[in-house]
Amino acid sequence: MAILTLYSADLDDPLLSDARVAGCLNAAERTRADRYARPDLARRFVAGRVIMRHVLARVLGVPPADVAITHNAWGRPELAGGPFFNLSHAGRSALFAIDELAPVGVDIEIDDPAAEQGWFDAILSARERAEFDAGRPAASTLLRLWVRKEAIVKAIGRGFSIAPAALDVGLREVDVHKWRPIEIDANGVSCSPVLIDLPGHEIAALARIGPASAHIVHKCYFWNGLVAQ
């Protein structure tokens, strides 16, 4: 049975960026944290890496500092031999997906009613543009479109080297109960990921390369343990 585990976390939990806990980060991760101009962004980056390393360490049975995270040519963090994983955060909210059988991508955004529709012009496919012109959807619908597309390109592992307008996912209504297949044939990439919207106060989506996961296990991540929802 294919099981995909999805962790939600609060990046502003002070224990996640405590110096003793963050000691598991490698030199490159610490250097990247130091480059952030704002302390809150640096703290949240550290917290996200702590979550990533500790969850993967539990799966692999090694200390968090020994998790050998590398990056592909497009910058996606990964492990040789798996498992597959992906992290996304918006503000203080984070989602971390892990799957032992297939690549996954997750994206989360904070709903922003002030978002301007013009921001999204460049990401619309021809069919989405027709839907947009016919209905003038709310900004939240367009943010939903964005997270769907970002989750897909993160699962593929190529980021937005794949033009978002080349991905046709549609301005469809939210369905948090059903995976749906998406056919991708753009920028030299041909694959059939599956996509699902995620429940919650933020706007989020999850993609998987391959068949739909038989089960998504949702968990909350706390420094002192993992609590199933």
From TrEMBL:
It holds the Pfam family ACPS. Belongs to the P-Pant transferase superfamily. Gsp/Sfp/HetI/AcpT family. It comes from Bradyrhizobium cajani. Transmembrane segments: none annotated. InterPro entries: 4-PPantetheinyl_Trfase_dom, 4-PPantetheinyl_Trfase_dom_sf, AASDHPPT_N, P-Pant_transferase_sf. Keywords: Transferase. GO terms for cellular component: cytosol. This is 4'-phosphopantetheinyl transferase superfamily protein. GO terms for biological process: lysine biosynthetic process via aminoadipic acid. Residues 103-176 form the 4'-phosphopantetheinyl transferase domain. GO terms for molecular function: holo-[acyl-carrier-protein] synthase activity; magnesium ion binding. Residues 21-97 form the 4'-phosphopantetheinyl transferase N-terminal domain.
